[in-house]
Each structure stands twice: as C-alpha cells, then as structure tokens.
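(Fold this chain)
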Amino acid sequence: MSSVRFLTGITTSGTPHLGNYVGSIRPSVRASQTAGVESYYFLADYHALIKVDDPARIQRSTLEIAASWLAAGLDPERVTFYRQSDVPEIPELTWLLTCVTGKGVLNRAHAYKAAVDKNTATGQDPDMDVTAGLFMYPVLMGADILMFNAHKVPVGRDQIQHIEMARDMANSFNHLYGEHFVPPQAEIEASVATLPGLDGRKMSKSYDNTIPLFASREQLKKLIAGIVTDSRLPGEAKDTEGSALFQIYQAFASEDETATLRQAYAEGIAWGDAKQVLFERIDREIAPMREAYLGLINNPAKIEAILLAGAAKARNHATPFMATLRHAVGLRRLSDMGSTATKKVAKVALPSFKQYREADGLFRFKLVDAQGQLLLQSLGFASPKEAGQAIAALQRDGTAAMVTLSHQLEPLAVDTDTVGAALNLLATGT
C-alpha cells in the first residue's frame, strides 16, 4: 500500500511566534514522524511577494522560519523540506493550470473578494491596489499542491476553498489531457490550538501582540509579565475562563499541571506568581530548541544547504513529472510528430502513466488506458528520477523500450500489441 502524501506551505513573511508553534509547527513536526506518511514542507517565498515588498524582510523571514522548524525537530532526511523558489517547475505548472482555470473561479477567491468588497465599501475602484498576483494566488497554490500530487493538505476551515479550487484545476486538466493529477483533500483538525496574545485577542502579527518563539529568556519573561490580567488581588479567587495567561499555560502543560494551576487560581494565586509559573513552563519546553535555533540562525550556509538538498529531492519528482505534463499538453519535440495530417480531429481520451511511491520506499509507475485498465506495471526503482527516465524511454521508443526495460517491468497484463498501441496513442495524441 502506498503512503499518504501530506503537503504544508509556510509563508515567509514574518517571525514565528508561540501561536505559530502551538497551532502549526509542533503538531506538524509530530505528524511528520508518523509511519506511512510522506511529508512535504515548503517555504512559500513566492506567496510572500504578494504580501511583502521588502526584500530584506523576506530573506530574513526565510532564514528564521527554516531555523525554527528545524530547531523544533523537523527532520530534513525524513521529509522533503524545500524553498518554493528553488523548484522552477512550480511556476511552469502554474501557467499550465492558469490555462485550464476559469476566471469566474478566481473571482470567487476569498482574498480577492475581500479586497474588492473593501474598495467598494469605501467608494473606490473595485480593483484598486489589487495585483494580478493576488488574483492568481489560488493557481500558484494549486500548483504547489498538484506538482507533488498531495493526497492531504492540512488547513484551517477558512482555507478549505484553496483545496476545493485545486481539485477543480486537477479535474479540468485531467478531463482535457488525461489522468495526471490526484484531486487533493483538505485535512481539517477538529480543534486547532489558537493562542491568545498579550492583550487577550488572538496572537497575531496583525495585532502586534505576539511572543516570538525564540525570544531570549529575559525577553520572554518581560513579555509574559506584560500579559493583560484583571485587577483581582492576591488571595482573591480568579477565573480561568477568559484568562489569556491560563489558556497559554494550558497549551504547554500536561493535564496534571493544568489542574494544579486551576486549583491555584481558585485559591487566589497572585498574578505575578502565575506569570512566573507560565514563564518557567514555556521556557522548559523552548530552551533546548532555542539553543538549536541560535546555532542555525548563526549559520545560514547550513540552512541554505539543507534547503537546496530538499529542493533537489523535490525536483527528483517534479522534473520528470513536468516532462510528462509538457508532453500531455502538446509541448513536444517536432521530431516526435506521429502524423502529417493537418485536419483537426476530435479529441480522444488518452492512456496515461501514473508514478507513485510504495511503503517499501521504492518508486513505481504503471500505464493505464483511458478507462483505467492496467496495461503495464513497473518493478521498484530506487529514485523517482530513474522511474521518470524509464517512462520517458517508453514514451520516446515505444515497444522497443519494453525490450530494453524488460528486467524492470512486471509481466504484461495484456498483449504486447495493445501496450504498443497505447504508447503510440500517447506519443501522437491521436
């Protein structure tokens, strides 16, 4: 049984804070260690360009976010961890998807609609300050997901639309050019941890109420001391309901620790003492990671090497897959022309190659006809590049390649002529 492929994007537009850690980094790192899961994590620096026009900020954010995830335990050997802009196949796929995505679909995108509604409400031109990047943002996100045929994409409920739009793009492309993409599914956690900030509102850079994830001990203690509390004196019972301090503590503490602080609230613990308890609990978890983070942040060359290695791993899949997609849409070598006929013929459903990874870690592919019937099945390859090269040989040389690759193929499910006809159909598109 093949593994389930998860994909997570991280926009490089700010410095990670405790809310990011509790809501995304910590659960994602834990999930990446699950057996039978193939995880892709990417730094979405192309996406950041839509929000940020400060080059230094994007570069610094990329460094800080990469260092934060690595310090929190993300294993680049176990997962594929890469920078979006290091995989040129992604913007190329964006264009292919742009050509099958209706403008009406993009008109309904939440970010674009919100910008238009805001302008309309203030009497401005609906598209004032709306860039093509903002409008096309869902297509780029679709390319991120579909390039690696992710099965599951963890998102909040407010981001489900992005996955639905990626599914639409996949289905549109598959309808026109054959089955190439797996329509992704949104993975929604029943309860995503959301931390309150210093002022009690959701911890967010927008409210400037965050606690940086790897603030120094001194800064962490100072920021925690600034958490807004009520005026109840020491000895007066205090409510845990609505207490930002208690909610933050709960996100880090065990059930027993939480119960102990709840009892202390009931007994009238002083706010200063409660803040000290919170500081010590957070620092106990963060301190080991802080040391690792500082080591990484002061060695950007090490992070760069990790990201480039991750990009190379990602491109082992992306490059041969993109070659298949280019061929599918007609971006082919003229020497591969299968017919001189100039008459327009009706579009027919084509056979297709499907490449995937099994639980044993090996990469395989199969050739199916337009109805999904299995025609050809490979044995396992050590890398997706090797599998992609075999597919390319079959597409180029047809049945001749079947002889050359016979030691890497399962016994045929059908006769050789049927497979040969399918390969010729795939090569010519007719």
User: Anything to note?
Assistant: Residues 339-347 have pLDDT under 50 and may be disordered.
